Amino acid sequence: MVKRSIIFIFLLVSTDVFLLESPAEALTCFDIIPTVMQCASFALGMVSRPSSQCCNELSRLHGMARTTDDRRQACNCLKQIAPQYPGAMDANLLALPQLCRVALAYPIRRDADCSK
């Protein structure tokens, strides 16, 4: 009887903990916009280094893109947004993660293959 009670309590507590955890929402292009906005001046060559706000946003984006699907989504969103910034300098886009010391798993490029 005691063994059954312990198992029941364990299952009850485990279920409560599981129900308290909310599933992570998928990354959307809307989540990418703050990063793009903060990094636009560097991408367009208006400043020589990315701002701390840009790097903070890039770091935030990196933290949000935890799964392979999230990283693919982020990559595809950046590709979709890129045409809105025709003056963006490809070299600046590629240098952004290194300058901000953020190890992205995908390149920031207009022609990136986001399926990899």
TrEMBL record:
Answer whether the UniProt record assigns the keyword Signal to this protein. yes
Gene3D superfamilies to which the protein is assigned, alphabetical? Plant lipid-transfer and hydrophobic proteins
Instruction: State the UniProt keywords alphabetically.
Output: Lipid-binding, Signal, Transport
Biological process GO annotation list? lipid transport
| SMART domains given in the database record | AAI
Record family assignment: Belongs to the plant LTP family.
Coiled-coil regions listed in the entry = none
Q: What is this protein's name?
A: Non-specific lipid-transfer protein
Ranges for domain Bifunctional inhibitor/plant lipid transfer protein/seed storage helical: 39-114
Which organism is this protein's natural source? Sesamum angolense
Record has Transport as a keyword: yes
